[in-house]
Design a protein that fits this description.
It comes from Streptomyces sp. R11. This is DUF3987 domain-containing protein. InterPro entries: DUF3987. The model has no long low-confidence stretch (mean pLDDT 84). 44% of the residues lie in helices and 12% in strands. With 473 residues, it is α/β, with parallel strands linked by helices. Strand 3, helix 5 and strand 4 form a beta-alpha-beta unit. It has a five-stranded parallel β-sheet with strand order 3-4-7-2-8, sandwiched between helices. Strands 12-14-13 form a three-stranded antiparallel β-sheet. The radius of gyration is 45 Å and the shape is elongated. Among the domains are: 269 residues, no CATH class; 50 residues.
Length: 473
Amino acid sequence: MDEKARYEPMAYGPIGAAVKAAMPHTEADPIGVHAAVLALYSAALNGKLTQPDGRPVVVWTALAGRSMVGRKGFALATAETILNDAIGEWLALRRQGGISSGPSLVQTLYETEQDSLTSEGGLDGRTLVIDEEWPTTLQLTKRCPKYSGVLRTSWDGKRISNVTKKDGKRVEITVNEPSLGFHVHIQPALWAKFISATEAQGGSYNRILPVSVERSKRLRRRDYKGSPLDEIRVSGSLRLAYEWVQKEPRQMELSDAAADRFDDISAEYEDALEELPEDVSCYIERSGEQVMRVACVLTAAERKTVVTVKALDAAKAFVDYSIASVKQLISQSNVVKSRTIQPLDAKIRQKLEMYGGEMTSTQLYRALSSRYSAAQILNTAEDMADVEMVEQRQKRPGANPVIFRLVEVMPQPDPVKEPEPVKAPPKRRAPAKKAVPAKKTTARAAKTTPAGSPPAPRKAPARKAVARKKVSA
């Protein structure tokens, strides 16, 4: 699917028109540019513009793409060019880099509010965090148990605070209504490493809309005298809409048809959550509110307060793309986790091959010290037939360095087994038969009979007389 077909369902109003007008002069993904515009523009509208229920409209986005290929920085630069006329000055004053702890985030928002008290507009704590090296920040946030909670509460627009000590006294810093914008970049391969399932299930990352991005095209340098972004026309409509919002607070509302449509969208997401495993559903549990926030920003760009069905459908198309991006990131994470861990001997062999087959002990220990001790490496190398350890003697004082070197191991031929003579099976001896005693026969006198005459009948044996017992009278 080409870039126009992918982006068309979510391209709505002045924001959609501005992104499409910029695409001939950028290599960025149009959906990535759209995500960056939503994050930056909603951060500027935040505080004066609210949802129908009074909650903030700020949209937090994360561009997920490979280095160079994803063109994440190109997408952000394109968005900044589009919005330069509308909020360029505000971005220069309120943009912050990566903040890696909860107390630092509270302190930053608090100081922004305090600095605004002397300005003409009064209290204004709007702050935008743009972190193009988000994995580095995430690695640091793991050390702060308060960071996730402060981040979640800031998205909700609720009170955040931090307690410090000054001159031995307890001092509490409070921001009652934080106005925080958030836009970050990350590589898909690092998602599994730094985005923990525990934090996701706690709700830290379902407030951020991840968007998978890739390069849309290659621009020919000879077609442009300077940067191709210089050819992008700034959006006057977005400037007028920003000024319109700043004049007075605006609370958005839904048309009757849009209210019914939003109920259907919320029910659709809830039904989908029941069928998805928890490790996926935890990222998209706030999809309904995300649709509302995006729709409010798209509508405000038209200088209107009534959200229509078309605006909701465009917002839903963007959120659905984010859901698909989350599923893709999680599937890639599961593939990474399922890879088998190499044993230490294979890693030693791999490192030696990278260094041309020879390394000093210091080099090898440093290459593997993140997971293994020097003793483990030494003991494993001693048992490897294709690795030898040689102590290199030096004239200067000090310990002699040990060299680990790959050696060629000649395969030993398999011993030839002489065929064993086949033994004949032992003959089975038949059991000896017991001698049967011969029957005794009485010699009978042979009688001569004339030939042809029938044999004489045998005489019946004489009956023995039975002796009768005498009965005495």
